Request: fold
Amino acid sequence: MQYSSSEIYTERVKYVRRIAWCLVGTTALVWLIDFAALQLPLPPGKKQWDVVKVDQMYAIRNRYNQVEWSHGSAIMETCAWSLLPQSGKRPCWYVTTHTLRTNHLEN
Reply:
């Protein structure tokens, strides 16, 4: 039995749509589980939030098109012990590995 090119195309489109919906569903499920684990501390006694010291550096471009670096004051950043960003806070695994924040300032 031979299939026409339009039948093959529609079968491929169905297959791609199914894969796309599976990816969207999996992503939503991971985010929901991460959100629930943050709101309900699982296991009990688990920390939900933490505070990490983050140093700041300012990059300022001067009139000769060179970058001057200036050390800023350290800030304390609240982070969430989760896999993904939750409640507007970055995950602690990311914040603890990136303790230097660079701010690029323009004249």
User: Anything to note?
Assistant: The first helix runs from residue 5 to 39. DSSP finds two helices and four strands in the chain. The longest strand covers residues 49-61.
